């Protein structure tokens, strides 16, 4: 029963990687076949360029996830389950980007305007940066008082009582 949580984590990571691989392969094959069958006459440089860009982004995310979630074994025994690929934080944002990529690649075969959905990724990143860092930094008042520690407050009280 030792290391049971790590074993579950390793299985969960393997399942997520398999889901990502099958999803990306299915979406990519759909994109390629749909364009070749229905839009063969307009299947040219830009269609191939878009297809290669999506494929390279999937390769990047898969290699990043595979290295993050790789389980480590020593003598057949699990030492480390790797990072939680289904957890909160940056991996959660990465999964959101992957879902947007899948949506855009599937719907992009019907109209190139769907590729504008990819702008949500830098738009959301700017939104988070603006609300979390830029706006508070810009609107910070120049004459704000520093927060005093307990010792400084005690010293002030003693000084006020002595007068």
Write the layout of secondary structure elements.
Blueprint: H1 4-38, H2 45-68, E1 72-74, E2 77-80, H3 90-107, H4 120-138, H5 150-162
Antiparallel strand pairs: 1-2
GO biological process, one term: vacuolar protein processing
Keywords: Endoplasmic reticulum, Membrane, Transmembrane, Transmembrane helix
InterPro entries: SND2/TMEM208
Question: Care to describe what's here?
Answer:
Helices cover 67% and strands 4% of the residues. With 163 residues, the chain is mainly alpha-helical. The protein has one domain. The chain has a two-stranded antiparallel sheet with strand order 1-2. A hairpin with a 2-residue loop joins strand 1 and strand 2. The protein is flat and about 90 Å long.
What characteristics describe this protein?
4% strand; membrane; transmembrane helix; 2 strands; flat; mainly alpha; 163 residues; 5 helices; transmembrane
**C-alpha Rg, in Å?**
26 Å
End-to-end C-alpha gap: 69 Å
Task: Give the strand line-up of the largest sheet.
Answer: 1-2
> Residue ranges: pLDDT <50 for 5 or more in a row?
none
Identify the quaternary structure here: single chain
The assigned structural class equals mainly alpha
Which of globular, elongated, flat, extended, rod-shaped describes the shape?
A: flat
Main pleated-sheet profile: 2 strands, antiparallel
| Proportion of residues in extended strands | under 5%
- The percent range for helix content is 55-70%
Helix and strand element order: HHEEHHH
For the record, the count of structural domains works out to 1
Individual helix count: 5
